[in-house]
Amino acid sequence: MAQKPSIPKGTRDFSPQEVVKRNYIMNVIKDCFTNYGYQPIETPSFEKSETLMGKYGEEGDRLIFKILNSGDFLNKVDEALYSDKNSLKITPKISEKALRYDLTVPFARYVVQHQNEITFPFKRYQIQPVWRADRPQKGRFREFFQCDADVVGSTSLWQEVELVQLYDDVFDKLNLKGVTIKLNNRKILSGIAEVIGAEDKLIDFTVALDKLDKIGEDGVKTEMLAKGITENALEKLQPLFSLKGTASEKLSELKQMLVSSERGLKGIEELEFIVKNIEALSLKSSNLEIDVTLARGLNYYTGAIFEISPPEGVKMGSIGGGGRYDDLTGIFGLKNISGVGISYGLDRIYLVIEELGLFPETVSANTKVLFINFGEKESLYAMQAIAKLRASGIASELYPDNAKMKKQMGYADKRGINFVVLAGDNEMENQTYTLKNMLNGKQETVSIEALINKL
Q1: 243 and 231 in contact (C-beta within 8 Å)?
Q2: Which of helix, strand or coil describes residue 341?
Q3: How far is the C-alpha of 185 from the C-alpha of 272, rounded, in Å?
Q4: Domain 11-179+310-365 sits in CATH 3.90.1150.180
Q5: How many CB atoms within 10 Å of residue 10?
Q6: Residues 6 or more apart in contact with residue 91 via CB below 8 angstroms
Q7: By the 8 A CB rule, do 133 and 91 touch?
Q8: Which of 115, 98, 118, 85 is nearest to 55 (CA)?
């Protein structure tokens, strides 16, 4: 007996209804991206390993899916290396490509490779799947879609202001009210590391801090101690965990804490600009919050960082994030090209909207009307009408087989098709159609024009 087929952990099949709902979210995001002047690009699903490795930090590198070289990939591995069984040393010999981890690093590669064709500042959007060898759990998958918008070639903080507005606009159009847009700045984190005497441990500091919502304050402190950050430093850090108040009040307290750090004060100044202008422009349905413990573990962020929390009461991790990166293209040889970008987590947004029951009733994969098949000549008559309905944007289909009426009606019922058309000899003779409403059982005989109008 053949084994029942299955799919890899962390991946999913999507039903027609799920695909239509996902497309609804993507179309809302895409329309907003276009409305804000962003242009679409696409990049390959896999990149050269050297493009991806070393860009996401040690933890990120471990989550990159490697692709084995074609052919006899072990042939080029010498016996000594093979016998050593060191996966870190052997991997570069047998794998030269990897599935993309995110859309930002491939975008940086794209900018450098196509720099002579691009007009800067360059505003691009990209909606494609990414892959991470993460432990699957609710809202965390190994294959998932990201919807990114980035601007490269400008250091203006107005870009950050616009990206906050873009977040708010998308969530407002999805009717997802009460989303929190969290904001911080990597310069502030650098300043904090400086004043607590842990400047040389900045990466360890930010990676640990980024886990606050997962492992809690005690877990973060334990990890920092394990990485060599001292007890004395953690005591100086304590006010950070209890910072309260409005955005302006938090920034005011931070100023006092970072008074000796020029870099930290620069970060505060940048956040003040964003907060001041967002308050002047106002948001439609989202909340803006300063979160000084927000770190975002990716190494390439250098300025403002964003993270999006779902509405209160929804148990879900972040549904979006992003930030400013001053020299990401520099790793590919193009220096001094600053960029800033945000990403929407399509899969998590879907789960949140589904949980809150916010998908519009009009979002459906369904055919609107099914024509019953009575035979060859009746089917031709039906197909002529179907062509006119489809030309009017009405999803229509003919049941393919001349089966019993009960079976055809049962098919319409199971598919949730609300209207059925019956057209036999009498209708053909009078150039009419009998339209049946499957919800209330009512029938009426109509012309093709009336059929189009009613549907």
Answers
A1: no
A2: strand
A3: 11
A4: no
A5: 17
A6: 66
A7: no
A8: 98
Give the pLDDT of residue 88.
72
The answer to whether 147 touches 40, Cβ cutoff 8 Å, is no
Residue 392: its H or E element: none
List, for residues 370-407, the tens digit of each pLDDT value.
999 999 999 999 999 999 999 999 999 999 999 999 99
Residue 215: predicted pLDDT: 84
**Which one, of 63, 65, 107, 36, lies nearest residue 300 by Cα?**
107
Is the separation of the CB atoms in 91 and 66 below 8 Å?
yes
3-state secondary structure of 227: coil
- For 211, other C-beta atoms within 10 Å of its C-beta total 15
Structure tokens at 191: 């300043």
Q: In a 3-state reduction of DSSP, which class is residue 299?
A: coil
- For 419, phi then psi, to 5°, come to -130, 140
Burial (Cβ within 10 Å: 0-12, 13-18, ≥19) of residue 194: middle
pLDDT per position as a tens digit, 23-54: 999 999 999 999 999 999 999 999 999 999 98
The b-or-e profile of 360-380 (16+ CB within 10 A means b, else e) is eeeebeebebbbbbbeeebbe
Are 185 and 270 in contact by the 8 Å Cβ rule? The answer is: yes
Tokens read off for 364: 């459906």
DSSP 37-58: T-EE----SEEEHHHHTTSSHH
| Displacement of CA 442 from its chain's centroid (Å) | 44
Domain ranges of the chain: 11-179+310-365, 186-289, 369-454
> pTM to 2 decimals?
0.86
Number of H helices, E strands in the chain: 18, 16
* Chain centre to alpha carbon of residue 211: 20
Amino acid at 61: D
Residue with tokens 């750090």: 261
Kindly report the number of other CB atoms within 10 A of residue 222's CB atom: 14
- Residue 440: how many CB atoms within 10 A of its CB? 7
What is the sign, positive or negative, of the torsion defined by CA atoms of 317, 182, 30, 312? positive
Question: 85: left (phi > 0), else alpha (psi -120 to 50), else beta?
Answer: left
Q: Which CATH number fits domain 369-454: 2.70.98.70, 3.40.640.10, 3.40.50.800, 3.30.420.480?
A: 3.40.50.800
Does residue 226 contact residue 242 with C-beta atoms inside 8 Å? Answer: no
Token pair 């990120």 in the structure block, residue: 60
